Amino acid sequence: MISREIGRDAGGLANVSRRGLVGGLGAGALVLALGLPRRSAAQGQAEKKFGAAGMPNGWRDDPRIFIAIAEDGTVTITCHRQEMGQGVRTSIAMVIADELEADWDRVRVVQADGDEPRYGNQDTDGSRSLRHFFVPLRRAGAGARVMLEQAAAARWGVPVAEVRATAHAVTHGPSGRSLGYGELARAASELPVPQPDAVRLKDPGQFRYIGREDVGLVDNQDITTGRAIYGIDARIDGMYYAVVARPPVYGGRVTSVDEAEALKVPGVVRVVRIDPPSIPSEFQPVGGIAVIARNTWAAMRGREALKITWEDGPNADYSSDTYRQKLQAAVRQPGKLVRSEGDLDRAMAGAAKRVEAEYYIPHLAQSPMEPPAALVRIQGGRCEAWACTQAPQVTRARLAQRLGLPEEAVTVHVTLLGGGFGRKSKPDFVIEAGLCSQAMDGAPVKLTWTREDDLSHGYYSTVSMERLEAGLDGNGRPVAWLHRSAAPTIAALFAPDPKHEMPIELGMGFINTPFAIPNIRMENPEAAAHVRVGWYRSVSNIPHAFAIQSFVAELAHAAGRDPKDYLLELIGPARTIDPTDLGDAWNHGEDPKLYPIDTGRLRRVIETAATGIGWGRPMPRGRGLGIAGHYSFVSYVAVAVEVEVGEGGAFSVPRVDIAVDCGPVVNPDRVRAQMEGAVVMGHGLATSAEISFKDGRAEQQNFDVYELTRIATTPREIRVHILPGGDYDRPLGGVGEPGLPPVAPAIANAIFAATGKRIRRLPIRDQINA
Amino acid sequence: MATTVILNGTEHRFDGDTEMPLLWYLRDELGLTGTKFGCGIAQCGACTVHIDGAPALACQTPVAVAEGRQITTIEGLSPTGDHPLQVAWRELNVAQCGYCQTGQIMRAAALLQENPRPSDADIDDAMNGNLCRCGTYPRIRAAIKQVVSKGSRP
Q1: Which SUPFAM superfamilies would you find in this protein's record (chain A) (predicted)?
Q2: How far is A505 from chain B (nearest CA, A)?
Q3: What beta strand segments (E) does A157-306 contain?
Q4: Do A703 and B41 touch (CB under 8 A)?
């Protein structure tokens, strides 16, 4: 019997079937992958659920879902979370293989289709793949190991306590007999899955892969040889290629189209109208005109030849310059109260010194190097998609809904993602491909976004104005703290015209700021969305951390204090804080008892980054150090930056020290890589990246003007410090996102130290000179 | 009239529009998807190939211009996938999402072909046209330098 995963991974896709994943599992091979129970992991409706249990479709730990063993001993692990560069295909396999006692060289990884009732939650965002699945997947691996041990014991007629699985074989101690996993696979597959209390997890001291630096990456060979398949690479014989002309303004629509010239372009076969969505548009395409052709080039040329008149709709006036002024006016007035402690007005009135500042953070585009792209075909009432999606189950549901098919008739195969960063959580591009296939009577159509499409029709990071005011006592200590944050909310994708940040946005480093200040008021003035606002790696933590961590350094300066010491003083002594006491009932979806805010951990990363960079050392003229620390995704990260500012205000970053405490670490090399990447991405949004709008249109269409950090401008040296995670029974923190928020304020603070110029608006560009 | 393109040592005949960028010819017509699309305007380097040994952007090269010349893509860089740069990329786990890395490797291979002992500044100059959104630049530098220090030649 061939396990379902294998058939799915091939999926009929011409260029995936050559990946050699099928090799070890010929017909008749084992298998720990029989019929599956549809057991719901999360039971009980009344109490509030946290972690994986609080996610749609919860978690699974049944070994038969995730593990198949062939009679030649090949172990096939199904990865149900999406790979977009965080290394999850490797890390998940490390966890399962470790508990399974599998030999790494005989492990293969296949990618699950979108099927949350089967796998549990698959929506890969929020930095939670390992946080939510470390324990269930350890149990899955251990459960399979126990089944193999039971099968061996039964074969030999010895007590199971006398046998032990190690390194891809089960041995019987007293007699020295040994059987390989392949030899035991069939018998093991016929056993019931052990009850949870019969499954003994390994002693972490015996881990073979978890916590090791030298495991490598399961996709390394394919990536370096060009054989790795991303959504844009998916191919089926006879497929068509499509691009879409979309309304230049969000909420706009086609009033007329002349397609005659487009149809004359050799290779163009059809022009198809995609209806505009109602607003809020959630994950639906924005509408427009699709051009379907025999190759991508013809489709692009056909699109250029379309003559379309657009009605721009209600957002035609959206311009970033005036909107910034609007946000500024909003934060200068009281807004919706979101946290209050003490008596702010009285404390402010009695303060020896008052400081205020406003910070502006523009829209950003995730712009993964692989733009959105998907291949869809519809045959015999069944739809198959191959897509670079972070959210395959959501993709499946929306595709089914839009195509008028039952969800069971839709299969979403997930390719590698050429970057995601939140953009590929939204399946609008897959739906577009589905509509094109439908218009072609179900023929396969691959739809590709150009970079101009990506930057013009994105789900942008929000635009934000943050106003902070503080009152200092005679010793320069803050006694009053007012923070107003105004930013259009992601909720505008789902509800008509909301004006306030959602709890998940407020809880991203705004209301849960753990400072020891007696009088605090936090407000959220109104802001309306005029574009699609969506998740961007670390989301609202970006503006909140930039404002707060910059302002702390401003207060330190006003008080004549060292900014690192001052930051530690604001954080106060090591203690744990229940985030609900700060008004944050969300806490990244985690149980506040399991994941309180631990100021001791926050202090330690700040101290570690400071020590790393040599905080306090004398700096030559034009050089300066800056620091920032931030809690997000239940992890703690601090960044210390050295900048060098040259003549004319040009600056470079010779050195960054980034310290992370994400709890126990599964894959230290990937934690390191995520921190390095966060520094580079943070450097880009700090220095040069911005999406601005004029007349409702994005002003940056490609990488010539949407400027990202390149190799020559990237920080010269990035040193990552991973704090000891402690026992593996402690809860894991997030890794993919929390590195990003402290980077920009640390750079801005370093620039201040070097030049006395305070940056309050991102990106920095040439402000140092101004 | 058919155009002839010599790709990874094999001749291919193409009857289509010779204004088509080599990128789409490789990807759509020949199914060689290791050469990536990132921007289409010579800003990201994801589509880097070699034409007669020199680095070229496939998105900017019409098939007509490639006619009769030796084109090498990532698929043809090393028959076994063991070019020293590919090995170094794996040893240092350079890739995150991996999407830009074929272009990075092709650009780096052209650099080392031309200058086997590049300085840090030479590396930055050569690689500056290749964007990586995951931020793997520190490891790209390290991988190139590892190959240089080992003195291994393809």
Answers
A1: Molybdenum cofactor-binding domain
A2: 24
A3: 163-166, 169-172, 177-180, 240-245, 253-258, 268-274, 288-293
A4: yes
Closest partner residue to A369 among B24, B44, B105, by Cβ? B44
Considering only CB atoms, which chain B residues are within 8 Å of A420?
97
| A645 alpha carbon, distance to own chain's centre | 33
B12-65 tens-digit pLDDT: 999 999 999 999 999 999 999 999 999 999 999 999 999 999 999 999 999 999
Distance from the B78 Cα atom to the nearest Cα atom in chain A, whole angstroms:
8
All residues of chain A having their beta carbon less than 8 Å from the beta carbon of residue B79 are none
Residue A47 pLDDT: 80
Residue A712 has pLDDT above 90, yes or no: yes
Please determine, for residue A612, whether its predicted confidence score (pLDDT) is greater than 60: yes
What is the CATH T-level fold of the domain B3-77, as seen in this structure?
Ubiquitin-like (UB roll) (3.10.20)
Task: Specify the DSSP class assigned to residue A415.
Answer: -
Q: In the predicted model, is pLDDT for residue A488 greater than 70?
A: yes
Q: Is the pLDDT of residue A4 over 70?
A: no
Report, as an integer, the average pLDDT of A543-553.
Answer: 99
Domains of chain A: 4-225 (3.30.365.10), 231-314+372-448 (3.30.365.10), 320-365+459-755 (3.30.365.10)
How far is residue B2's CA from residue B7's CA, in Å, rounded to a whole number? 15
Dihedral, CA of residue A612, residue A615, residue A619 and residue A622, to nearest 10: 80
Asked if A680 lies within 8 A of B38 by C-beta distance, the reply is no
Q: Which of A458, A465, A435, A455 is nearest to A447 (CA)?
A: A435
Q: What is the pLDDT of residue B43?
A: 98
Whether the per-residue pLDDT at A7 is higher than 70: the answer is no
The number of CA neighbours under 13 Å toward the Cβ of A237 is 3
Query: Would you say the CATH fold of B84-150 matches that of B3-77?
Result: no
A230–B135 C-beta distance less than 8 A: no
Q: Residue A726: what pLDDT? A: 87
What is residue B1's predicted lDDT score, i.e. its pLDDT? 67
Residue B39 to chain A, least CA–CA distance (Å): 5
Distance (Å, rounded) from C-alpha B59 to C-alpha A250?
29
Per domain, the residue ranges of chain B are 3-77, 84-150
- Mean pLDDT, chain A, rounded, equals 94
A33 pLDDT exceeds 70? no
CA distance to partner chain A, nearest, from residue B96 (Å)? 4
A572-594 pLDDT tens trace: 999 999 999 999 999 999 999 99
- State whether A681 and B133 contact (CB < 8 Å): yes
The verdict on whether omega for the bond into residue A280 sits within 30 degrees of 0, i.e. cis, is: yes
Go through chain B and tell me how many residues it has. 154
Tell which residue, A470, A539, A609, A550, has the closest CA to residue A762: A550
Per the CB < 8 Å rule, is B39 touching A296?
A: no
Neighbours of A216 (CB within 10 A): 14
Disruptive mutation site among B37, B89, B130 for chain A (greatest number of A CBs within 10 Å) = B37
Q: In b/e form, how buried is each residue of B107-140, taking b as 16+ CB within 10 angstroms?
A: bbbbbbeeeeebeeeebbebbbbbbbbbbbbbbb
Does the distance separating the beta carbons of B135 and A450 come in below 8 Å?
no
Residue A624 has pLDDT above 90, yes or no: yes
Between A697 and A31, the more confident residue is A697
Say whether domain B84-150 belongs to CATH 1.10.150.120: yes
**B58, B66 Cβ separation under 8 angstroms:** no
Residue A480 CB neighbours (<10 A): 25
Q: Is the pTM for the entire model greater than 0.90? A: yes
Q: What is the ipTM of this complex?
A: 0.98
- For chains A and B, CB pairs below 8 A equal 195
| Partner residue facing B34 (CB), from A227, A450, A678 | A227
Q: How far is B22 from chain A (nearest CA, A)?
A: 10
